[in-house]
Amino acid sequence: MIRSPSHPRGAIISISAPLLRNGFNVVTIAHNEDGVPLGCDITRYRRSGSHIDRLPPQSIAIWNASEGLGMVSANGRELMRKLPPDKVGYPGELIAATGWDSDRLYGIVEELRWLGLVHVQNPDRPRNHWRIARAV
Predict the structure, then answer these.
(1) Which residues of the chain are under the pLDDT cut of 70?
(2) What is residue 116's predicted lDDT score, i.e. its pLDDT?
(3) Cα–Cα dist 38/109, whole Å
(4) How far apart are CA 66 and CA 7, in angstroms?
(5) Which pTM does this prediction carry?
(6) How far is it, in rounded angstroms, from Cα 63 to Cα 81?
(7) Which are the contacts of 7, defined by CB distance < 8 A and separation ≥ 6?
(8) Ramachandran angles phi, psi of 33, nearest 5°
(9) Dihedral sign (CA 12, 40, 31, 86)
(10) DSSP string, 42-95
(11) 3-15: string of b/e by CB count within 10 Å (b at 16+)?
């Protein structure tokens, strides 16, 4: 990521790709429910002989946690209030505490993860088993 001293809140993300005959990238922009861009996921596909291999995705966040505090949505702030420091929250508990459906909860958790405000301790598990903790 490239930042300018004259525009400290701005950033340029530069992603390179091979020549098309050697592979390509799929870039997906993540944003919160307010439309604020949070980062991008890059899925890389590379030619290997006669087939194309899908490489593990890479994620690039736009904001750091201190900037994230100013970018978070109203629902994100509400969820942060429901997550006490030094305690793990579980999706079922957070759905009950907020009254949101599961899709909304996971969307807000993803927003907070991109902003560096929460950490999912076991992201490889199914979402309903996530252990969610504050990062700040």
Answers:
(1) 1-5, 7-11
(2) 92
(3) 12
(4) 16
(5) 0.78
(6) 21
(7) none
(8) -70, -15
(9) negative
(10) EEEEEEETTEEEEPPPEEEESS-HHHHHHH--HHHHHHHHHS-TT-EE-HHHHH
(11) eeeeeeeebeeee
Are the beta carbons of 127 and 91 closer than 8 angstroms?
A: yes
CA distances from 102 to 23, 52, 83, 119 (A): 36, 35, 16, 18
User: H-helix or E-strand containing 120?
Assistant: strand 118-120
At 129, list the tokens: 């088993």
Which domains, ranges and CATH numbers included, belong to the chain? Answer: 2-61 (no CATH), 65-134 (1.10.10)
**What local confidence, expressed as pLDDT, does residue 126 receive?**
92
Length of the chain: 136
